[in-house]
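Long-time lurker, first post. I've been practising inverse folding by hand and with some scripts of my own, and I keep getting stuck on stretches where the structure tokens seem ambiguous. Below is the full token string for one chain I'm working on. Before anyone asks, I'm not after the true native sequence, just a reasonable design that respects the backbone. If someone could post their per-position residues I'd love to compare against what I wrote down in my notebook.
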């Protein structure tokens, strides 16, 4: 069966031995992948990306979570990028036009390389984590003061966004 569309796999009885075997599988010294040993057969090499995906799927299933596999083309439409980033298509167009995400034109249509969209998503996520870390509330600070401080930060961010939109 060739999978060409999204498919979700329900959690199965993934044993701890499979999780441990994948975690213990030796990585090649040149970073090329992971070697899986099978009794009576030569080791099979999994590419690093496939081994990482398999580890993540096995770990999630062992925790009782469902796993969804969604094949992607390497060139995405603006709607596909919007779905990936969790934003609207007009927001994606603004990101493309501002140069925050590289794109190419195919006729009149914009296309974004999957790696560029993922790179933007990861950098945005890292910025969000840094913001959250920077707004940690002092436990000794009265709750009312912390709420006022957070409101001031939100107002400042909103003003920056408005200024950026008007630039």
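-- Answer (accepted) --
I ran through it position by position. Result:
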């Amino acid at each position: 069966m060739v999978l060409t569309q999204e498919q979700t796999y329900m959690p199965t009885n993934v044993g701890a031995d499979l999780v441990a075997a994948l975690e213990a599988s030796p990585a090649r010294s040149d970073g090329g992948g992971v070697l899986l040993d099978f009794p009576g057969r030569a080791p099979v090499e999994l590419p690093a990306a496939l081994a990482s995906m398999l580890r993540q799927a096995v770990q999630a299933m062992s925790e009782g979570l469902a796993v969804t596999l969604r094949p992607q083309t390497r060139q995405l439409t603006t709607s596909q990028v919007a779905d990936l980033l969790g934003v609207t298509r007009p927001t994606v167009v603004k990101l493309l036009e501002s140069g925050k995400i590289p794109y190419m034109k195919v006729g009149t249509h914009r296309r974004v390389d999957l790696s560029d969209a993922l790179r933007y998503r990861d950098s945005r996520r890292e910025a969000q984590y840094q913001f959250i870390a920077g707004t940690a509330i002092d436990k000794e600070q009265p709750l009312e003061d912390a709420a006022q401080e957070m409101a001031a930060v939100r107002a400042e961010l909103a003003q920056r966004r408005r200024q950026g939109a008007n630039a």
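A couple of notes from the structure itself: Strands lie at 7-9, 33-36, 44-47, 67-69, 75-76, 104-106, 109-113. Residues 143-166 form the longest helix (24 residues). Happy to go over any region you disagree with.
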